[in-house]
């Protein structure tokens, strides 16, 4: 994924909420779709979301027993995957609806991940599943992740993308712009799943995300496209001190 606006026109991107309005809209949206969130995710991703979560946790490369923060944990699907790998998840999400329907083996905290209540260097690693589009400031998120992740710890951040290959991109746009809202309307909240393809416009180019992670205090930053570019994964290691890998 290289375009700053993926799958959405610049005009449409300017119509998306920002700042406090975005926080309120995102929280209300996730409250509304919590009941069938995992079911709809599985359908609209054609079942690929499970493999993406596997890859996200694989990429942490952390030893058994490591404590891992799941940012915007939702209903806990990544928390459960962490637990299956004998890692110790802690979930944080600002949606009370999501947390009310969450199934997680670890503790869950209601908070905004940009101003989390956790102590400095309290986690061995951190993950997120499809959260990058939904925060108000990626730079602030990455600085906060650097604060709560111990030196040498690992992060693995998963989100959606758009294929670069022309035919795949065309098919992807047809699916996300037409089929996904129909599925969402039938099973959940239609407005939320109309927002999904538009929300890709929040993501900056991969090169900018890598730059922000490095500025926040991470090294060995890698960007990987999954499933032909339908999703993407950023991995990085918390530097031991400024200027060191």
What does this structure look like?
This protein has one domain: 3-Layer(aba) Sandwich (Rossmann fold). It has a seven-stranded mixed β-sheet with strand order 3-2-1-4-5-7-6, with helices on both faces. The model is unreliable at 1-14 (pLDDT under 50). It is α/β, with parallel strands linked by helices. Helix 7 crosses helix 10 and helix 8 packs antiparallel against helix 9 (190-199). It is built from ten helices and seven strands.
Q: Which CATH C-level class is it?
A: Alpha Beta
Low-pLDDT stretches are 1-14
Number of helices: 10
Number of strands: 7
Order of strands side by side in the largest beta sheet? Answer: 3-2-1-4-5-7-6
CATH superfamily: Vaccinia Virus protein VP39
Using the coordinates shown, work out and report the CATH topology.
Rossmann fold
Distance between termini? 25 Å
Overall number of structural domains? 1
Q: Which structural class do the helices and strands define?
A: alpha/beta
Known CATH architecture: 3-Layer(aba) Sandwich
**Inertia-based shape:** globular
Quaternary organisation: single chain
> What sequence of helices (H) and strands (E) makes up the elements?
HHHHEHEHEEHEHHHEE
Could you tell me the strand content as a percent range?
15-25%
- Summed over residues and divided by their number, the pLDDT gives a mean of 89
Gyration radius, in Å: 17 Å
- Fraction of residues in helix: 40-55%
């Amino acid at each position: 994924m290289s375009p700053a606006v993926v799958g959405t026109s610049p005009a449409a991107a300017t119509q998306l909420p920002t700042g406090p309005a975005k926080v309120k809209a995102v929280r209300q949206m996730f409250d509304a779709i919590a009941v069938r969130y995992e079911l709809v995710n599985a359908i609209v991703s054609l079942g690929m979301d499970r493999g993406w979560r596997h890859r996200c946790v694989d990429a942490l490369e952390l030893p058994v027993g490591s404590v891992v923060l799941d940012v915007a944990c939702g209903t806990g699907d990544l928390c459960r995957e962490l637990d299956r790998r004998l890692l110790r998840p802690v979930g944080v999400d600002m949606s009370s609806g999501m947390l009310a329907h969450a199934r997680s083996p670890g503790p869950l905290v209601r908070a905004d991940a940009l101003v989390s209540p956790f102590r400095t260097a309290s986690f061995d690693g951190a993950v997120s599943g499809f959260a990058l589009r939904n925060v108000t400031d990626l730079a602030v998120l990455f600085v906060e992740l650097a604060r709560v992740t111990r030196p040498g710890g690992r992060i693995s951040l998963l989100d959606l993308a758009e294929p670069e290959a022309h035919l795949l991109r065309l098919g992807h746009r047809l699916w996300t712009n037409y089929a996904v809202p129909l599925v969402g309307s039938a099973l959940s909240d239609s407005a939320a799943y109309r927002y999904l393809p538009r929300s890709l416009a929040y993501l900056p180019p991969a090169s900018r995300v890598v730059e922000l992670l490095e500025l926040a205090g991470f090294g060995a930053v890698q960007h990987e496209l999954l499933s032909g570019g339908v999703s993407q994964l950023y991995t990085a290691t918390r530097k031991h001190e400024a200027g060191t890998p």
